[in-house]
UniProtKB/TrEMBL annotation:
Belongs to the TatA/E family. The chain crosses the membrane at residues 6-22. Pfam families: TatA_B_E. This is Sec-independent protein translocase protein TatA. It comes from Donghicola mangrovi. The lineage of its organism: Bacteria, Pseudomonadati, Pseudomonadota, Alphaproteobacteria, Rhodobacterales. The gene is tatA.
Length: 69
């Protein structure tokens, strides 16, 4: 369904959105989208860094179990 939109259709949609919401609203919305993308990328990077730090092998056997072996 969306494969047949083309450039003229996209331009028409852009004009309609601009008329409905105004330039100021759209620019503030795009700023918020940019901040969201930046926060997402930072979260992914922090998560991958945390995974790398946790890859060290740790002995989590309780002390009582270690004495039995």
């Amino acid at each position: 369904m969306l494969n047949n939109i083309g450039l003229p259709g996209l331009l028409l949609i852009a004009v309609v959105v601009l008329v409905l919401f105004g330039r100021g609203k759209i620019s503030s919305l795009m700023g918020e989208v940019g901040k969201g993308i930046t926060a997402f990328k930072k979260g992914v990077k922090d998560g991958s860094d945390e995974i790398e730090n946790d890859r060290q092998v740790r002995d989590v056997t309780p002390a009582e179990e270690k004495d039995k072996a």
